[in-house]
Description:
Blueprint: H1 12-17, E1 24-28, H2 32-39, E2 44-47, H3 51-54, H4 66-77, E3 84-88, H5 98-112, E4 116-120, H6 126-134, E5 139-144, H7 150-153, H8 165-178, E6 182-186, H9 190-199, E7 204-207, E8 215-218, H10 220-223, H11 241-257, H12 264-268
Parallel strand pairs: 1-2, 1-8, 2-3, 3-4, 4-5, 5-6, 6-7, 7-8
The structure holds 3-methyl-2-oxobutanoic acid.
3-methyl-2-oxobutanoic acid binds at residues 28, 46, 48-50, 88, 142, 184, 207, 217, 219.
Amino acid sequence: MSFSAPTKTLTAADILARKGTTPLVCLTAYTTPVAKMADGHCDLILIGDSVGMVLHGLSSTLNVTMEMMTLHGRAVARGVERAMMVIDLPFGSYEEGPAQAFRNAAQLMADTGASAVKLEGGQHMAETIRFLAERGIPVMAHIGLTPQAVNSFGGYKVQGRGTDATRVLEDAKSVADAGAFAVVLEKVPASLADDITAKVPIPTIGIGASAGCDGQILVIDDMLGLFDAFKPKFVKRYAHLAADASAAIETYASEVRSRTFPSADHIFTK
Ligand code: KIV
């Protein structure tokens, strides 16, 4: 009888230990089949609140609910064996303070099997990050462009340009100091991302930042060309699945209308 060794699921400690070594491969996923595809290649899979825009047609992430995160988190859990599963705390579920954040983070982790949460914010979230980290909830921080703050930023704008770089650097230092095991740097100049990567002791995960970060993350539907409502400038498309799917549907429709769609008889009489 042969036994295959059980797959080891990566932990926050494993991700932290990758600082300055092999770059971390990270992607979002929202469903079981996509999670299965990503798991073999990724160190970390994020159930991002981008699910609201990508799969539910919302115009921002602000209306994403705990219920939506739970549903998609459970689906992803059915497809993941090796990657670390991190889940986003949705807007409104953590900003009131550490106790609210702990209650909702613990609930999402228990309901989905995710082993960490991600939350947006720098210096002003440090107290909450420390509170969670000290109570057994690993936290991935997210600074730079934080999409849940789109109304305060006045759009999805690059953060940390010119003198604003100091603010973003201080954000990175405070979340690291508070105990985050990694930090997402979204839409910041490459030189600033490199500087932060050199100065903080935790892995930096870039998205529209720098190839010099300790890892990269993309929204999977963006990189597969599945979500084409708009394309952030920094996104590289590795496939064009929306275009392929449209062409396939067009062919199907034309075959149905022209009665060239294969008849079942032909298959069953073989
Ligand atoms: O929600 C999300 O998918 C994210 C990533 C883009 C980092 O926060």
